[in-house]
Amino acid sequence: MLSNFNQQALSRVASAYTGRFRETPGKMLEVTTDMLKAGQLYSLGVLVYMADFMVPFWTAWEGFNRLEKKKLSNTLPIQSAADYYELLQFNLQIAEQGMTGSLRGFRDFYKKETARVFISLLNSLYGDEDDNIPDYAANLARLTDNVINRYPEAIRKIGGEFGFHFDDGGYIKTAETERFVLYQVLSRDQSIHPRKDGKPIMIIHPYVLGPNILAFLPDEKKSYVHAFADQGIPTYIRILKDIQTTEAVQVMTGEDDARDTRRLCELLKATHGRSVTLNGFCQGGFMAVLDILSGELDGLVDALITCVAPMDGTRSKSLVEYMQHLPSRFRDLNYAGKSLPNGNRIVDGKVMSWVYKLKSMEKEAPLVILHRDLSNIRGSEIGKTAAAMNHWLIHDRMDLPEGITKLSFDSYTIPVAEDGTLPVKLFGKTLNFKGIKEKGIPWLLCYAEGDDLVDKDAALVPADYVDVEVTPFPKGHGAIATSWSDPRSACALHTRFGNGYRGPVRFQLDLEEGKRNSNGS
User: Fold this and answer.
1) Which letter, b or e, does each residue of 70-99 get, where b requires 16 or more Cβ atoms within 10 Å of its Cβ?
2) Structural domain of residue 253, as residue ranges?
3) Are 460 and 344 part of one and the same domain?
4) Are the C-beta atoms of 158 and 151 separated by less than 8 Å?
5) pLDDT at 331
6) Pick from 160, 179, 203: which residue ends a domain?
7) CA torsion, points 492, 473, 506, 388, in degrees to nearest 10?
């Protein structure tokens, strides 16, 4: 009886293994096909990511050749040889950083993949139907297809939801100058209307990063400008006109920025009967400070908010280290310049953003980004937030006027003086941070703790000279406009969080309430 039982058991085991062996050739063919597909897509991804990274290089190379032809004729050969040797060393250092980052990304990704392959192999040997080798191969093929094919398509499609779309009925064109258009931002919630007696705020976007990051995903409640509008605050965004078609933008200077800002603030004060809060994001914050210190906005602006704004770029540790290794001969803004058909010179925005990638090559090398995308997308659908962020990084690099770029360039190469004097001037006037205190303007300065574009030290410089209210936000450079603009987030802009820190919207609401109380209304 026991013998019969053993025979039956052995027969069932033999039958099961026989069935599996019959299926093996077909499954191995599937595995081989999926692995070949994954390998082809991975190879294609390497080429695509490398090509995308190198596109700005060719523009920079043209500018380099053009400028060096002039410099070589005016420089001693021995000096040129020394400069080029230093440049070679600089390039080798960047290449080393890129290689180090790429190898680290490769190692981290394939360490996890090796563990998955081993588990899948064990599952296949022991007959588990889930997470076996065929499943692993199919998942790997699906992952590489998502990253190489579906991800770019998702990035393209999110353009309809990402950023500003001034023709969708959610904005009102309010004013216009030669260089700017002013729009009022309306809440997506049609039951919320701007308060007639509210204190207006005008938001200034960065030049090179463009405005769209400030209206990240309005319908997902992730929009910096809509965070203000959703609280009934009269909210306005100043939009730079297209530099390719607007000659006034091509040749504009810091003085033009200040004069146009004054005209727009005059209109807002006349409309609302109250002075304006000026709110600059990133480079827009630096320009807002310059405009106020120039005196052009006296009597029009009575409060200031800056977010992740570089106030003294020489205190940016990573950039300073980068610039110190670059020979002085090549610290020339003209290498990023290009000529338009009308002869005007502007600065190529893609080249400028590429420079920031070079200084962070351990994180921004193309193979690092490829393996980062492969890791982030695995096991999940392509989310709108990831697609929108990449849409911004890929498509929203704007060309710049030389006059405006020179102001930022000087602030990154010449430190603020010990007495708080800035390295740039407007209207021939010396500008000093202490002028903000003299004008009695309250200042909320927001920075990002994980910002690798504008270091904390570069953003907090004004606190050395004037009383500013400082609000730190977690995460990186764009988080204030993305993660924390969500009213459900831990650091929602209309709330107090952490150690009583005020978000920009909370700051504006408190200013508005304080003005009301002082009026006795």
Assistant:
1) eeeeeeeeeeeeebeebbeebeeebeebbe
2) 171-348+399-519
3) yes
4) no
5) 75
6) 160
7) -50
For residue 489, tell me if it sits in a domain.
Answer: yes
**Can you give the CATH number for the domain in which 327 is found?**
3.40.50.1820
* Rounded-to-integer distance, Cα 409 and Cα 345, Å: 16
Determine, yes or no, domain membership for 240. Answer: yes
Among 98, 129, 160, the domain-final residue is 160
Give yes or no: residues 213 and 155 share one domain.
no
Give the end-to-end CA distance of the chain in Å, rounded to a whole number. 99
**Inter-residue contact 272 to 299 (CB < 8 Å):** no
Q: How far apart are CA 512 and CA 498, in angstroms?
A: 23
3-state secondary structure of 235: strand
- Among residues 343, 336, 502, the alpha carbon closest in space to that of 409 is found at 336
**CA torsion sign, 438 to 441 to 442 to 446?**
negative
Query: Where is 79: in which H helix or E strand?
Result: helix 77-125
> Which regions in the chain score pLDDT beneath 50?
1-2, 5, 10, 13-14, 16-17, 19, 21, 515-521
Q: How many CB atoms lie within 10 A of CB 2?
A: 6
How many domains in the chain? Answer: 2
Per DSSP, the three-state class of 305 is: strand
Residue 223 lies in a domain: yes
Q: Are residues 210 and 144 in the same domain?
A: no
Distance CA 137, CA 38 (A): 8
Does one domain contain both 135 and 40? yes
Identify the pLDDT of residue 516: 38
Please check whether residues 221 and 83 belong to one and the same domain.
Answer: no
Are residue 137 and residue 27 in the same domain, yes or no?
A: yes
**Computed from CA positions of residues 494, 496, 497, 499, in that sequence, does the dihedral angle turn out positive or negative?**
positive
Backbone φ and ψ for 341, nearest 5 degrees, come out as -55, -30
pTM here is: 0.85
User: In 3-state terms, what secondary structure has residue 217?
Assistant: strand
pLDDT of amino acid 201: 98
Tokens of 132: 């076996």
Q: What is d(CA 268, CA 202) in angstroms, rounded to the nearest whole number?
A: 9
CA distance 375 to 108: 9
**Pairing mode, if any, of strands 201-204 and 421-426?**
unpaired
pLDDT in tens, 292-346: 999 999 999 999 999 999 999 888 876 666 766 777 777 777 777 888 999 999 9
Task: Give the Å distances, CA to CA, from 214 to 205, 281, 473.
Answer: 7, 8, 16
- Are 306 and 441 within one domain? yes
The reply to whether 273 and 133 lie within a common domain is no
CA distances from 32 to 133, 134, 136, 379 (A): 10, 9, 11, 22
